[in-house]
Amino acid sequence: MPLANGRSYLAIPGPSVMPEDVLRAMHRGAPNIYEGELVDMTYGLVPDLKRVAGTQHHAAIYIGNGHAAWEAALANVVTPGETVLVPATGRFGFGWAEMAEGIGADVQVIDFGRQHAMDPAKVAEALVADKAHKIKAVLGVHVDTSTSVRNDIAALRAAMDAADHPALLMVDCIASLGCDRFEMDRWGVDVMVTASQKGLMLPPGLGFVFFNGKAADVRADMPRVSRYWDWTPRANPEFYYQLFCGTAPTHHLYGLRAALDMIFEEGLENVWARHATLARAIWAAVDAWGQGGPIALNIKDPALRSHAVTSLHIGAPLGTNLRRWTQHEAGLTLGIGLGMGTDEDPQGDGYFRFGHMGHVNAQMVLAILSTVQAGMTALDIPFGPGGLDAATRVIALG
User: Fold this and answer.
1) Residues 298 and 198 in one domain
2) Same domain, yes or no, for 312 and 253?
3) Residue 23 lies in a domain
């Protein structure tokens, strides 16, 4: 008998769970977009977004998803024929590379596989070899949502500095912002992109690009940037409509205000600490289960794991079977093995993912783990004992 009736739990790595405060803030009629409350509120959002990003420089808001933010960032600093270097650690590194190819860039990819973080030394080698400084930018993904690897962006910056190369450091924080520690200015990032539907706890629909003075100077030397993607009027508007190149994303902005208020009420350091503890609880459970069964964390080194998303391998077709059981029998939706296909498992049926980002707490994580253990029991998938006990110990000790 299915036990899925009642409130379902979407535990995929984005869109993430939306808090009631965010939903209530968005549940309203259309506001005046020319003056008054909405306009005043929007100008207050920008410094708070910069605070979450760890920057005192510039921010631009786009109506679009993370892919739109990728293109917006590229459009302002890269022209057709120029070169970008992409150290890829999963599907989303390749995705950003494909976006760069789409605007006519020459793309060089260093593939570090799907179980390893990028090696900054190898990136430095490629930059040192670029004697003519053809490489305009390095496109790094902080957390790749497909593999759940977390890359060391500060180390990447240090390697670029050691290579004495002028390339911009551009970083994708779509999966990590508001979940894993990220400090744009302190880490020397020139351009950062993110989106609304993960750590910021909103529906998909907003993309954000943060950029510093070095990136702004590169933009100033561009021969042209399309009017819509141009970040200059968005970051320095003379009129309100220039923030969005037209009509504002009204209801997303109300939701964003509520989400940022929640983040600051908790405290950003506490937000990062909460995500770290809940991630360790998941890892502890999976490590115990894996002692007696096929389930395993995709990233072996805990220091390289995201605190927002966890990619797991259990063998085909068990990943898909388990996801379907948890969804249809228990009301829990887990993430697919996105970008994890192999020759033996072309659809990635041996993988699945936990999303534990944004509006998530201890009882929600314990619900994920208990339901997955029930699913493995129902499907006769072997697993080692003590997984739930290991997770509860992590949570109890904080």
Assistant:
1) no
2) no
3) no
Judged by DSSP in three states, 332 sits in strand
Q: b/e string for 160-180 if b means 16 or more Cβ within 10 A? A: beebebebbbbbbbbbbbbbb
* CATH number of the domain encompassing residue 317: 3.90.1150.10
pTM, entire model = 0.96
Looking at the structure of the chain, the number of domains it has is 2
Q: Can you say whether the dihedral through the CA atoms of 337, 338, 340, 344 is positive or negative?
A: positive
252-290 confidence digits (pLDDT tens):
999 999 999 999 999 999 999 999 999 999 999 999 999
Q: What is the pLDDT of residue 185?
A: 98
The reply to whether 204 and 284 lie within a common domain is no
CATH number at residue 102: 3.40.640.10
- One DSSP character per residue, 279-330 reads HHHHHHHHHHHHTTSS-EES---GGGB-SSEEEEE--TTHHHHHHHHHHHHH
pLDDT confidence of residue 353: 98
**What value does the mean pLDDT take over residues 92-107?**
98
Residue 376, domain extent: 9-16+268-397
Helix (H) or strand (E) run with residue 373 in it: helix 362-378
> Taking the C-alpha atoms of 379, 381, 384 and 386 in order, what is their torsion angle to the nearest 10 degrees?
-20
Structure token pair of residue 256: 């964003």
User: Is 92 a member of any domain?
Assistant: yes
Domain closes at, from 264, 291, 316? 264
Last residue of a domain, one of 229, 264, 299: 264
* Dihedral over Cα of 88, 92, 96, 101: its sign: positive
Return the sign of the alpha-carbon dihedral for residues 253, 255, 257, 263: negative
Alpha carbon of residue 359 to chain centroid: 14
Cα gap 397→291, rounded to integer Å:
23
- The Cβ of residue 88 has, within 10 Å, a number of other Cβ atoms equal to 23
**Taking the C-alpha atoms of 345, 347, 353 and 355 in order, what is their torsion angle to the nearest 10 degrees?**
160
| Mean pLDDT, the chain, integer | 97
Could you read off the pLDDT of 117-172 as tens digits, one per residue?
999 999 999 999 999 999 999 999 999 999 999 999 999 999 999 999 999 999 99
Whether residue 374 sits in one domain with residue 233: no
Predicted local confidence at residue 252, as pLDDT: 98
Structure confidence at residue 118 (pLDDT): 98
Residue 294 lies in a domain: yes
Band of pLDDT at residue 236, cut at 50, 70 and 90: very high
Question: What does the pLDDT look like over 195-216, one tens digit per residue?
Answer: 999 999 999 999 999 999 999 9
